[in-house]
Structures are given as C-alpha cells and as structure tokens.
Write a structure and sequence with these properties.
single chain, 380 residues, alpha+beta, Butyryl-Coa Dehydrogenase, subunit A, domain 1, Butyryl-CoA Dehydrogenase, subunit A, domain 2, Butyryl-CoA Dehydrogenase, subunit A, domain 3, 3 domains, four-stranded mixed β-sheet, four-stranded antiparallel β-sheet, 10 strands, 16% strand, binds acetoacetyl-coenzyme A
C-alpha cells in the first residue's frame, strides 16, 4: 500500500528505517536484556527532533500531520517499540496544550522540547488507572496559583522528562468535572521522580512514578479552564490512540519480517518450513492482521487530520492493532519453535513488547467500553 504515501512520507520512512537499522536495532536486544538505558540513542533521536515531529512548525515542531506521524511511529517501532513510544510521549503530553493551551503556554512548552528535552503526560495514579476520574492528586488554590500534592504512576519518560502535563483535582466534590490540567516543570521545588518500573517489555522506555509535594504552580500554567481537565485528558487520548496502534503495527511487521526469513531458511524433514501450509497459513493470518491494522490506524489519523470525530475509531484502532500485535507475535514465537522461546532470538522480545499495547493508553477493555457506549448511542 506504499503507493498511498507521499514522496515526503516515503523519504521520512526511509530516513527512520536507516536510523532504526543502523542505530536502534543494534542496541535494542542488548539493552532489553541488560536493562542498560541507551541515553546516547535518545540524544541522537532528540537531535533529529523526532520527539517534536507532529508539533506545529510555528512552535518549532516538525509540522508533520497525524498520518505522517503514525507512519514514522510505526517505522521506528519496527526496530524498538519502547524507544518509539518514549519519543512520542512528548507529543502526547503536548496534546492538551494544542487543544486548550494559549500560544504562550505552547511556546513555553515547545521551547523546552526544542532544547532536546522531553515531556511526560501524568494522568495515571496507583488508584486511578482505568478509572481516570478517581484521581487523588490535588491542586489547591493558593494566592496567585495552586499547590499540587500527589503521586502519579506508570508515567512514560517520567524520569527523563523536564516538563510534565499533570492532571489534578481542583474540586473533588465535582468528580470528573473537578479535574484540571497543569504544566509543571521538573525543576520546580517538590517535584521528584519515584520508583522506576522493571518491566516485562518495552524495556528501552523509562516508566516511573512522579511525585508532587507542595509544588507551587503559577495560575498561568493552568491549561484551559478549571474543571476541564478530564475532558482534555479524554480528547488527548482520542488523538493519541492511533499512534499507540501504529507502534503495535510496527511490532507486527518486525515479527512478519523475521518469520519470513526464518521460514525460508529453517529446514525440517529436508525442506524449508515455509513450504508447509501450517506455516503459510500462520504467515497469511499475521499479514491480514497487520495490514488491516495499519490501514485502519492511518484512516483514523486521517480523520484527526481532517478534524472529524474519531473517538470510537481511535479506540477501535488501538484495540485492534494491539490485539493483533499480541496474536502476531505469539504466532512468531510458534514459527520459531524452541528458538522462539530463547532470548538469543529476537521474537520473544516482540511478544513481551506487544503485550503492553493491550494495557496502556486505556486497557482494551476500556476501549471496548468506549466503542460499545458510542455504538449504543447511535440511531438507526
Ligand atoms: N471526549 C470528550 N469528552 C469526553 C470523552 C471524550 N472522548 N469521554 C468522556 N467525555 C466526557 C463525557 O461527555 C462526560 O462529560 P458530560 O457529563 O459533560 O457529558 C465526562 O467526560 C465524563 O464522562 P464519563 O461519564 O464517560 O466518564 P467515566 O468516569 O465513566 O470514564 C472512561 C470514562 C472512558 C472509562 C475514562 O475514565 C477512560 O478513558 N479511562 C481510561 C484512562 C486511560 O486511557 N488511561 C491511560 C493513561 S495514559 C497512558 O497510558 C499513556 C502512557 O504513558 C503510554
């Protein structure tokens, strides 16, 4: 389906493929195993501006549209999904600002990113994951600003980011309508990074708690109006979920590429295993799942680009692509047989990396709640 890509998108894809093959892939397996954090690799990607690729040009971003952004995210995820997700975490954090922030706020935020620094989106808490509205982090008005107290968890790039977008309750009595969003700089007194997760997969990404203790935040750092935070978080996730799906597609493609090569060279009973219909049907099902996910993800990115409603579609893209990634990588392990289960070979890493995509940015159960809720509202 590459004929649908513009020349610019193809060039960008090739540039990412070169970086991915020559730099990311070489380090990914080793860092996955040892837990070493590839700071140098991140620095290169930040120098290339990959963390700002989908931010508007007028604020110093790459200015690429959502379709191009998912193409880039997919390509990068082929080499390492955790690396890809981390680089796009800054764009996720920027979305509430792009939706409801002032030009001054966006500029302040992107000026930080332009220095090769990262941002993180802080919504989840120990007791508020799927039930995002149950957040306990409080922002209490105090003079000309707010004082924040609370703990966020499972924050992608929590320990790497220099600026956070934090969701906190300004009025708990109003439930989800009492949530507000703030820009908080890492250097503000009272901000600290808590425990880092030792994860099953996407081990090249950094996932931590972020703690706020009596953090003073000026009123001008409030994004949008007080009480708009929950809707802002939901709209942000609607825009980000196709991107999550795109990274899952990248994992699927990596699995297919490895399985194709392996099936053609691995012999059993004197013949390559690729001649067996059992293997061919697995490869065919992997291709069906991958290509349908890819095209649907790009379709939803197109809806966002066109300014069309996309809440249900974003949930479909995220759930379908991530369910596909788990199925595809599970089959990849099966095709590789005993070698698939060995850490010497790359497919078990893909399987571990794929699993998180069914969990973060809203579990696939939450996606199904969103989809079903919207289906039930439709009129015949
Ligand atoms: N867009 C705009 N408004 C929305 C909305 C959307 N998509 N979804 C809900 N709202 C509005 C509703 O209209 C409602 O407002 P009104 O009363 O004015 O109509 C208000 O928000 C409350 O809506 P609900 O009653 O539906 O809210 P709820 O408490 O029942 O929760 C939910 C709904 C869909 C389950 C939500 O809590 C949710 O999405 N949970 C999952 C959270 C999530 O995805 N977390 C991921 C964290 S980020 C992450 O993982 C990133 C990372 O680091 C990789």
């Amino acid at each position: 389906m590459d004929w649908m890509l513009t020349e610019e998108q193809k060039e960008l894809q090739q540039m990412i493929a070169k970086f991915g093959k020559n730099e990311v892939l070489k380090r990914a397996q080793e860092c996955d195993r040892t837990g070493e954090f590839p700071t140098d690799l991140y620095n290169k990607a930040l120098e290339m501006g990959l963390h700002m690729i989908d931010l508007p040009e007028k604020f110093g971003g790459g200015g690429f549209d959502p379709v191009t952004a998912v193409i880039v995210q997919e390509e990068l995820a082929k080499y390492d999904a955790g690396f890809s997700v981390s680089l796009f975490a800054s764009g996720l954090a920027a979305k509430p600002l792009l939706i409801a922030g002032t030009d001054r706020q966006i500029q302040m935020f992107t000026d930080i990113l332009a220095q090769g620094k990262m941002a993180a989106f802080c919504l989840t808490e120990p007791q508020a994951g799927s039930d995002a509205g149950a957040s306990q982090t409080a922002a209490v008005r105090d003079g000309g600003g707010y004082v924040l107290n609370g703990r966020k968890c499972f924050i992608t790039t929590g320990g790497m980011a220099d600026v956070y977008v934090v969701f906190a309750m300004t009025d708990k009595s109003k439930g989800v309508k009492g949530m507000s969003a703030f820009i908080v700089e890492r250097g503000a007194p009272g901000v600290s990074v808590g425990k880092e997760e030792d994860k099953m997969g996407i081990r090249l990404s950094n996932t931590t708690d972020v703690v706020f203790e009596d953090v003073r935040v000026p009123a001008e750092n409030l994004i949008g109006a007080e009480g708009e935070g929950f809707k802002l978080a939901m709209k942000t996730l609607d825009m980000a979920r196709p991107s999550c799906g795109a990274a899952a597609v990248g994992i699927c493609q990596a699995a297919i590429d490895l399985c194709r090569d392996y099936a053609l060279q691995r012999k059993t009973f004197g013949r390559p295993i690729a001649v067996n219909q059992a293997i061919q049907f697995k490869l065919a099902d992997m291709e069906i799942a991958t290509e349908t996910s890819r095209q649907y993800v790009r379709y939803v990115a197109g809806l966002i680009k066109a300014g069309k409603p996309h809440s249900t579609e974003a949930a479909v893209a995220k759930a379908y692509a991530s369910d596909s990634a788990v199925k595809v990588t599970q089959e990849a392990v099966q095709i590789f047989g005993g070698y698939g289960y060995s850490r010497e070979y790359p497919v078990e890493k893909l399987y571990r990396d794929a699993k998180i995509f069914q969990i973060f940015e809203g579990t696939n159960e939450i996606q199904r709640m969103v989809i079903a809720g919207n289906v039930l509202k439709q009129k015949a």
